[in-house]
Amino acid sequence: MTDDRMHTFFPYDKEWCESMGEEIIAEKPMGTGPYTFVQWDRGSRVVLTANPQYWNEDLPKIKDVVVRVIPEQSTRIAELLKGGVDLISKLDPDKCAMVEKNKGTKVLETPSHRITFWQFDSMGRAGETPFTDKRVRQAVCHAIDRQKIIEVMFQGHSKILNTCLSPFDFGYNPDITWYEYDPDKAKALLAEAGYPDGFEADILFYYPVSKQFNEAAMGYLKKVGITLNFKNYVGNVGQAIKVRDGGKCKDIGNFGWASYMLLDADGLLPFWFGAGSKKNYSGDEKLAVWIEEARYSFDQDKREKLYYQVQDRVKEQVYWMPVNVINSIYGANKDLQLTLPVNETLMLKIAEFK
Asked: pLDDT for 15-51, tens place per residue?
């Protein structure tokens, strides 16, 4: 884990930073990478060009790169199909066929490190909530047929997740299974918890693709008496994060996570279950102790054992309902040669047109 941490550092020149100030650094970044900054039009585009002082004189293969901001997927696809752009991200599964059928474009896809999940307010951090009762959290998990939703919704472009880590993480336990779909058991648990007639609950989300899953889950929950109220922050991620990190995410938060270069449990668990973390809605001191112990150990066997304990406890206490592993799907110019890594960090320096 220490080696992984070392190559995720992003060093800055101390004298340059101190002389320029924070605002200038944000708008005129400097560095030693394959591309240098040329221009930033807020909300519109970023222009980059090859760094003549890059250590490898054969890279990058593509000299100039323009990154455009196009929020609407339909507009991004239209631009790709007519040749206005060479690469678009976040392509929905049901749009892949359209891109594949066009003679000048293709689909690039890989499983990614990114996962999505429902986080329950198990500690009542945002106020009074039925979700402080473990039986209610269990009932929700029994009420939703996650497998069926994902099969229909993602059409083979995603896999179900049964624990709180990505399959690409060190420490991931592939043997954990989740609560089976059993609506009768869900109703019995709700009645046992004092909610025989169900209740209303809020769910906050900001991923566009999450809306479809949540709509399907809403139908399942309605059958056992739980009514979901959507708090839709799609397009307003910054505000959603303020609500969540400020302890105001009531009932359920539907979030996603990837730690990019760090494919290790330490890239996720301290942020969501660590002591003092703004994202922590479990308040579980045992988890915090195990996570801290694993973080500072050089014994990989010990670290793996601790991470298995964490995953077992997250399941047993139902702090999360894992949802899925997201595939990275891109639409691309048919002549663009680009390798997709699982960590979502595009290696544009080795991309080329052939």
From this structure: 888 888 877 777 777 778 899 999 989 889 999 999 9
- For every residue of 79-95, DSSP letters joined together read HHHTTS-SEE----GGG
Report the alpha-carbon distance of residue 323 to residue 151 in Å, rounded: 12
Residues forming beta bridges with residue 117, ordered by sequence position: 255, 322
| Distances 151 to 80, 197, 276, 321 between C-alpha atoms, Å | 27, 30, 37, 17
pLDDT digits (tens, 9 = 90+) for 221-246: 999 999 999 999 998 999 999 999 99
Distances in Å between the Cα of 23 and the Cα atoms of 9, 27, 33, 60, 138 are: 21, 7, 21, 28, 47
DSSP state of 170: B
The tokens of 78 are what? 């239209």
Of the candidates 145, 179, 173, the one whose C-alpha atom is nearest the C-alpha of residue 315 is 179
Nearest alpha carbon to residue 252 among 144, 341, 91: 144
Here the tokens at position 239 are 């505000």
Question: H helices within the chain, ranges in order?
Answer: 2-6, 14-20, 22-27, 73-81, 96-101, 134-143, 146-154, 183-192, 208-223, 237-245, 269-273, 285-295, 300-317
C-alpha distances in Å from residue 312, one per residue of 18, 165, 305: 46, 11, 11
Q: How many whole angstroms separate alpha carbon 52 and alpha carbon 6?
A: 26
